[in-house]
Design brief:
There is one protein chain. Helix content is 42%, strand content 0%. It has three helices and no strands. It is mainly α. The N and C termini lie far apart (43 Å).
Length: 95
């Protein structure tokens, strides 16, 4: 499996997951910094690669079994991030 480079602009349906307990705080900047630091560690973690492989295995199963597993696990996440690019300009909330 070839891992995408940082300059890769091709969108594809690669699926990987990583469990993450979202930190809570009243300080928005502190949380963003913590999430960024934690997500940087994920880039060198084995879990997303393993779950991507498991998703590939599920997709190779008979349709009835694969659908059942996908529907079961697709209902679990509370936060989803994708490889879809964000806006090419700064975005602000409330000014």
């Amino acid at each position: 499996m070839k891992l995408p480079s940082h300059d890769n602009t091709e969108l594809s349906n690669k699926i990987a997951t990583h469990p993450y307990f979202l930190p809570l705080s009243l300080d928005f900047n502190e949380i963003i910094s913590k999430i960024h630091k934690d997500m940087s560690k994920v880039k060198s973690n084995f879990v997303p690669l393993a779950t991507s492989y498991i998703a590939s295995l599920i997709m190779s199963m008979p349709d009835k079994i694969a659908r059942s597993l996908v529907y079961h696990y697709a209902s679990k996440p509370t936060l989803t991030m994708t490889n879809v690019f964000g806006p090419p300009f700064p975005v602000t909330l409330c000014g």
